[in-house]
Design goal:
Elements (H helix, E strand, L loop, with lengths): L1 H11 L21 E3 L14 E3 L3 E2 L14 E5 L7 E6 L1 E3 L2 E6 L2 E3 L2 E7 L7 E8 L2 E2 L6 E9 L9 E9 L2 E7 L2 E2 L6 E5 L2 H4 L10 E3 L4 E10 L3 E10 L1 E2 L7 E7 L15 E10 L4 E6 L2 E2 L9 E3 L11 E5 L5 E7 L4 E7 L10 E7 L8 E16 L4 E18 L3 E11 L4 E15 L5 E12 L4 E11 L5 E9 L2 E8 L18 E4 L5 E2 L6 E6 L2 E6 L1
Parallel strand pairs: 9-15, 25-29
Antiparallel strand pairs: 1-2, 3-8, 4-5, 5-22, 6-7, 8-21, 9-10, 11-21, 12-19, 12-22, 13-18, 13-21, 14-16, 14-17, 18-20, 23-24, 23-26, 27-28, 28-29, 30-31, 30-37, 31-32, 32-33, 33-34, 34-35, 35-36, 36-37, 38-39, 38-40, 40-41
Length: about 550
Amino acid sequence: MKKIYSILLGAALVASANVASAQQLPNSNFDGSWVDCVPWTSKNNTKKQGVQPDGWCISHVIGMNGTGATSVGDKVTGGYDGSAYAVKLIHTANPYKKSEIVPGYISLGTSWATSKGGIVGSPTNKDGGVFGGLAFTNKPDAISFYYQRSHGSSKPEEPATVVVYSWKGTWSQASVPGNNVLTGSAATVTMVDRDKNILGMSTDQGGTVTKSDDAELISYLNYSIQGDATEWTRFEQPISYLTTSTPEKINVIISAGDYFGGPSAIGEGNTLILDNLSLVYYSRLSALSVNGVAVDGFASDVYNYTMLGTELPTEAQIAATVMGQSASKSVVIDEENATITITVSNVGADNDGQTSHSYVLQYEKAPVKEGVSTDYSGYLNGAIIDVETNENMVFAENEGKIITITEYEDGTCDFLLPNLYLSLLDMSLGDILVEGATVVKGADGTSTYAGFVDDMALLDGALFADVTLNGTITAGGVVNMEINVDWDGVPIVCTFTSETTGGIENIESNDVEAPVEYYNLQGVKVANPENGIFIRVQGGNATKVVL
């Protein structure tokens, strides 16, 4: 009893899944905290230069110990759609040497720059970029944001750049110079997770590159934004996945110019203002077909389709391809409403802010079967059978009950035993509904009923059970029905009769001496049944058999 109680009670407790929320970019609308920037150098700079949104790094430079310090970004009031602030990135001339333009970009990693000389002529050994990033284990499908864009006069065709990449493991490059000097050599460091190392690009400065055994570039986007945009303009681009591995880190770099183009590509005054950065997790389909034929007019953002015919396909006949790297799909077949619903879900929001989308295929509804419903009053007896002890744990004994049988002209019926209540557990399994049961009319006026339901949803969907129906109604209206509910090896046996009895153990509907007759599923008597499914009738008991 304790074991069965535990099993049924456990099924009654519908656990809520602990679905992890998708990771997003920090301070992504830039309305959060802004902090002083202390540009990184290999000489452990501590001087402040400019400001940056908390969680991000703007490529301000400190110059040569403060000489030539340059700010290349700032907070601007009035962001997209009424937000408080946006980020302005701008290529800016070094105040100490106007011919040297410092690029403006923002990243999740740490920006750095190096050069040598420059008192007379241009500095040499110039290099820079970003190293490091943000700890990250999700798989976003795209990046989006809003931007405004303008150009100065020196490089009016320079594109802005959006770079996104995720990886696992580490890359290390020895002897990377990381500060600006007038004379002598810059101090070097072993730089970990330098952008160009991870992306497999050559570097102008630095020594040997090594990587950990598990180092792997997992996803990558490098996109150029062309032209100007005086009004807020939406940007969205998919991120390409190179492997199926789970990332450990991510970096986002957005530049007012050609980020990988080198110093000669940078144009003074070229500006990018951006706001509302977001990682997008697609929860839509990219393709949908039924029985190998693409659904007519399919588009990922169209969610309702009218299909021909009344025959609904099986789930195996539906091919639905999800767009998102982490997306999952479920298929629900609703025969009553003649619909197929494919729902795609993801851990984070799509570009419309939703985490799931449902596609509905509406088929033509089959003609409604006209049936005659009859209510029968009687007595329900029921017990749970403990298969280990063979003990009958009675939950209903001569309980007043009404069943409903709806018979159709095609020799089938729907059998309803409403609200099967297990009193000893104080638990309602719900309605026992056996649709499409076979009705066989005997020569003496007795009707024999047989039906079976595989995986009937009970207890509000918390458990699924196989249900078998056998029974008779005599010409005089005497009802005897047996309803067996088998859930995961736990038998629940019920009998319903229109005449009171001494209890469930006293109901015996099968006469073992009676002759055996066979009927097909249409109710036609078969003399020599073989190679098919038939109804075996003996006495008052009917059973569906395969011969």
